[in-house]
Amino acid sequence: MTKPSLLEVEARSYELDPYGHLNNSVYANWLEHGRLVFLRDRGETYTSIPERYGVHVVVVRQELDYSEQVRLSDRLRITTRIVRFGNSSFAFEQAVDFLDGRLDGRPAARGLVTMVCVGPDGRSCPMPAALRSCLDT
What we know:
The chain has three helices and five strands. It has helices at 24-41, 48-53, 129-135, and strands at 5-10, 56-66, 75-85, 89-98, 109-118. The chain is α+β, with helices and mostly antiparallel strands. A five-stranded antiparallel beta sheet has the order 1-3-4-5-2. A hairpin with a 3-residue loop joins strand 3 and strand 4 (89-98).
């Protein structure tokens, strides 16, 4: 398991649904931002990876489990780490936790996102060893 990256966010009024809690689609955006922070913490971005390693990394599966409602002005932390490497893929585990310690350490939401390396032909390809080494910290 890799060292986690952390991102703090706050629920904003325009992210709420008609019931007054965070719209489900916002979690996917927050988790995407968390993955970008993970890459930046390792000196990479989604545009630097193809330039340096000759592959793109793309989401092929995203699972989200919601445990608790998030409301206006709630402050949360997104924790992102890689929990599995395959030949051409890797999986991020992500947690959305309340900064005020609500839920006794259980996350408000949890995500598992699988990404795959894609070559110039648009097909999956083995992960370059140098990319894996960069991500596996």
